[in-house]
From TrEMBL:
It is found in: Nucleus. It comes from Olea europaea subsp. europaea. PANTHER family: WRKY TRANSCRIPTION FACTOR 30-RELATED-RELATED (PTHR32096), WRKY TRANSCRIPTION FACTOR 41-RELATED (PTHR32096:SF133). Transmembrane segments: none annotated. The keyword Transcription regulation applies. PROSITE patterns: WRKY (PS50811). This is Probable WRKY transcription factor 46. Residues 122-185 form the WRKY domain. Its main location: nucleus. The lineage of its organism: Eukaryota, Viridiplantae, Streptophyta, Embryophyta, Tracheophyta. Gene3D superfamilies: WRKY domain. InterPro entries: WRKY_dom, WRKY_dom_sf, WRKY_plant.
Length: 333
DNA sequence: CTAATTTGACCCCG
DNA sequence: CGGGGTCAAATTAG
């Protein structure tokens, strides 16, 4: 992560700075209960700024994560397809399954995102991030006063989506949640129910993500930021990948959505691995405040208010790429 | 009825 | 051994 080019770093910083500035303006607009148009357009600008910056960071994160993950999937695939299991005839025995789980745990969390979210007043729990999550566990964490909740993507079994998140109240501020994302969504989720009385925010708001923190478990500082972008990345698994790709409904997706895992591992489960990765993260894109101005991109405080929380629920990510996606992407990838 | 949550057991790893 | 992450049966919600 340290090897961000100067140009990029400048761009990121300037974008974030601008975003913060605009956010402040928006705050002033909101409080005097000003016109919706003004707010809407400001919000658009803010989001655009953040989008650019975050996508830039995202890009680097993805480049860092792609190969190790593919390796992981390949590996798990081989281990399941190849060897006749030593114990019992059932290839999905509990033990084996567990083993896979832990292997996955060890290998997969190449990246994560940590987001701090202030809960909306009068509403318990962190705001919806637009994905369908299924809670699968809760644990009391040593030294923390609040338990940690574990969520996985609802479509894990239907689509093999391995995305996971952990949510925990912050000790210091129980109204704030720390949300830790792991893995990337490979599922296709029917998106956000239309909201009746809201604005029409344009497509450029259609994918949002919080800051990304790339974590490489093996401390190999291997994350070379390659300024080039290959899409789709070279299929590692030859046979199924391409067909799946072709079968994928030709969604004219936004550029930043288009890099998913093109890796299909039919053997790891009975589900299809979808090549598309939908990466909208924030359903609550409101009043962004960067916690620290420099180099710590991983913590973003999102403070949604009840008034603004519903603004962006009508994203349509099937719409055409927008100005940003074409120009920005070409410029930086 | 199905789907989601709860919760104690289970497992790996440091 | 114990902490943290996950599973899965039981329970609850829709």
């Amino acid at each position: 992560m340290e090897k961000i080019g100067t140009l990029k770093r400048k761009t990121v910083i300037s974008e974030l700075t601008q975003g913060r500035e605009l956010a402040n303006q928006l705050k002033n607009q909101i409080y005097p209960a000003n016109s919706r148009e003004a707010c809407g357009s400001l919000v658009e600008k803010i989001l655009s700024s953040y989008e650019k910056a975050l996508s830039l960071l995202n890009c680097m994160a993805v480049l860092g994560e792609t190969s190790p993950v593919s390796a992981a999937i390949l590996e798990s695939r081989n281990s399941l397809v190849g060897t006749p299991t030593s114990e019992g005839s059932n290839p999905f025995s509990k033990e084996q399954n567990q083993r896979e789980v832990f292997k996955r745990r060890k290998i997969l969390p190449k990246w994560s995102e940590e987001v701090r979210v202030c809960s909306v007043i009068g509403q318990e729990g962190p705001p919806d991030d637009g994905y369908n999550w299924r809670k699968y566990g809760q644990k009391d964490i040593l030294g923390a006063s609040f338990p940690r909740a574990y969520y996985r993507c609802t479509h894990r079994h239907t689509q093999g989506c391995l995305a996971t998140k952990q949510v925990q109240k912050i000790d210091e501020d129980p109204s704030t949640f720390e949300v830790n994302y792991r893995g990337r969504h490979t599922c296709i989720q029917e998106r956000l129910k239309q909201n009746k009385e809201d604005y029409n925010i344009k497509e450029e708001d259609s994918n949002h993500r919080p800051g990304i923190k790339v974590e490489t478990p093996d401390s190999t500082p291997k994350e070379e930021i390659v300024p080039s972008f290959s899409f789709p990345s070279t299929p590692i698994i030859s046979d199924n990948v391409e067909t799946e790709f072709l079968l994928e409904p030709a969604k004219e997706s936004n550029f930043t959505e288009s890099y998913g895992y093109p890796f299909i591992s039919p053997a790891t489960s009975d589900c299809n691995y979808l090549s598309e990765s939908l990466c909208q993260m924030n359903d609550f894109c409101v009043d962004y405040n960067l916690q620290s101005s420099e180099s710590d991109f991983t913590n973003i405080v999102l403070t949604p208010t009840s008034a603004t929380n519903s603004l962006f629920r009508d994203w349509d990510f099937t719409t055409d790429p927008v100005e940003f996606d074409s120009s920005f992407a070409l410029e930086y990838f």
